[in-house]
Write a structure and sequence with these properties.
two-stranded antiparallel sheet; three-stranded antiparallel sheet; binds iron/sulfur cluster; 6 helices; 5 strands; single chain; alpha+beta
Length: about 170
């Protein structure tokens, strides 16, 4: 896959379209961007790190995480921000939050509400999928219909879905 071209288009599609028509950050003071843990971050999708090559991003560091995926145990890159960002360069995980792709080896891809978001996000706590801005949901689905054609992205999403299952048991 031409990662740069695809992620650039995904970023563009989710530049203006957000979970609500209004700024949901006003509901929670931007809780998803605030962390007291300096090592907390969001996983980059496979190949997404290409978006940060030759960019000046002092607010973001990208490093290998302990999260592995696929038969070859590929390493997931994690992006750790300082709670601020250049909005035009925020990672895909931030753009789709609190939604996330979900897929099992034998299943069909779905977009679900991330169970991990329930600890801090009022939308994740109270919304059903039908309550989100429909255009936002449509675009997230469209982006992953394309991204999931890539084997690395599929393998990563499958692995991540097992984690979501485990976390989902607590909510
Ligand atoms: S935590 Fe949820 S409601 Fe708050 S800014 Fe993030 S997505 Fe919006
Ligand atoms: S990169 Fe931006 S949108 Fe993502 S968590 Fe950091 S401040 Fe929030």
């Amino acid at each position: 896959m031409n990662a740069k071209r695809i992620y650039k288009e995904a970023y563009r599609l989710l530049e203006q379209v957000t979970p609500l028509r209004v700024d949901c950050g006003q509901l929670c003071s931007g809780a998803c961007c605030i962390s007291e843990d300096n090592e907390a971050g969001m996983y980059l999708y496979p190949g997404e790190e290409c978006m940060y090559k030759n960019e000046n991003t002092p607010w973001l560091r990208i490093e290998p995480s302990a999260f592995l995926y696929g038969d070859a145990d590929k390493v997931t890159q994690i992006a750790i921000c300082d709670g601020t960002c250049n909005r035009a360069l925020r990672p895909l995980s931030c753009r789709i939050f609190p939604l996330i792709p979900y897929l099992k080896e034998d299943g069909k891809p779905e977009i679900i509400i991330d169970p991990r978001a329930k600890s801090m996000c009022p939308l994740a706590q109270t919304f059903r999928m039908a309550d989100f801005e429909p255009e936002f949901v449509r675009r997230v689905k469209m982006i992953f219909a394309i991204l999931l054609k890539n084997k690395d992205v599929r393998d990563f999403v499958i692995e991540q879905s097992y984690v979501l299952d485990e976390i989902g048991k607590f909510f």
